[in-house]
Structures are given as structure tokens and as C-alpha cells.
Amino acid sequence: MNTLTTAFGAALPLAAGWSAHVLWLRRHLHTARRDPLTGLHTRDGFTRRAADLLRKERALVLLADVDNFKQINDRYGHAAGDTLLKACADRLAHYVGASGVAGRLGGDEFAAVILDPHGTAEDLCAALHAVLARPADPAHPELRTTVSLGWVRAADFPGEGLSELLGRADEAMYAAKQARAGVKRAGLGRLFAAVAGRRTGHRGARTDTTATGAAA
What we know:
By secondary structure, the chain is α+β, with helices and mostly antiparallel strands. The protein is built from six helices and seven strands. The protein has a five-stranded mixed beta sheet with strand order 2-3-1-4-5, with helices on both faces. Helix 3 (about 70-75) packs across helix 4 (about 80-95). Mean pLDDT is about 80; it is low at about 20-30, about 190-200 and about 205-215.
């Protein structure tokens, strides 16, 4: 009995140490999947959660890009640019909520997957666009810009995965930016020449295969 008690007592520090190590690993993994500036998911974390959401009905894929971000940085400095990105990220995360996922894909580009249980996607995206376009800091109303938003309903393109749907949302976003329309939905046709689902020369585009479609 004493031997068993002694062995159990010796094992306790090892178990506690292992538990602490597992907790550290989990926290480290969580941090690695979060963007340090905005707190949103990075591309890897976003992709994992988004893929699960796309299995559900009425999933929408959105892509948002801050307009004239370089000019904001040039005029007000990088700290102001970071404030703007953080404000956009906070509003996007709040809007998406626990039922969806939002991520920062890089630079001033954000993505989200949300569910549209009531079939009001147009209203949802219009409301999100209005929220994202508000001034970043009420004390500095000059620190603001518009945001271009493209979105696609996953059910319109059965069989397409996250990468293809992001490509369509990207094209719609670019069309909204070019037309200064604010928000645009991806249609059943292709809006622009694309490279592996992303516009030529855009972040994430490949250069070995080109797919060109007709304008919507």
C-alpha cells in the first residue's frame, strides 16, 4: 500500500507538468491561428472553420477590401492604418458572431463565412458594408475610408469549395471597387479574367494556369 501511495505521489508532478504542457500547446496553436494585430483567424484557422460552415445550408462567403488603404497609411501613418484595420476587424467579428467565422487573409483584405437562415443575404451584406465604412475612431472622424465587399451564395455553385467561392467573391469585390458600388454579389458568369480563382496579379493568384470567363 505504501509503495502504491509513493508511486502515485511521484506521478502527480509528472501529470501536472504534462497538463501544463498540453495547455501551453493549445494556447500556442490558438495564437498561431490568430492575426496578432486584429485577433481574427489567420488563413489557416479561417480555412478550417469555413470549410465546416460550407457544409451547412444558406452559407455565404464574403470578401472585404479596404479602399485607398495605402493613402491612409501615407497621409496619417502606419499607426493610423493599423487602427483602421483593427476597427474593421472588430466590427466584422462582431457582425459575424459565434455562428460564423471571420479572418484576415493579408494586408487590408478580410474574409468571412456566415449563415443566412432567413434568406436576406442582400440586406445582411448591405448592413455589414455600412458598419465597416464607419469612421475608425469617433474622436478622429477624418480617419475613415470606404470598404468594397463582394459576396457569393455557396448554394449557387454546388460542388465548389472554399477556394473557388473566395475567387468568385474576390471578383465581385473587385467589380464593386471598380464601380464604386460598395457591395456586389457574384453572379453565375465570370466577372473578370482570373488565375486559379483569383484575379491576375492579385494576392493568392497562381501564374501557371489561367481561366478566363465571360463577363456577367
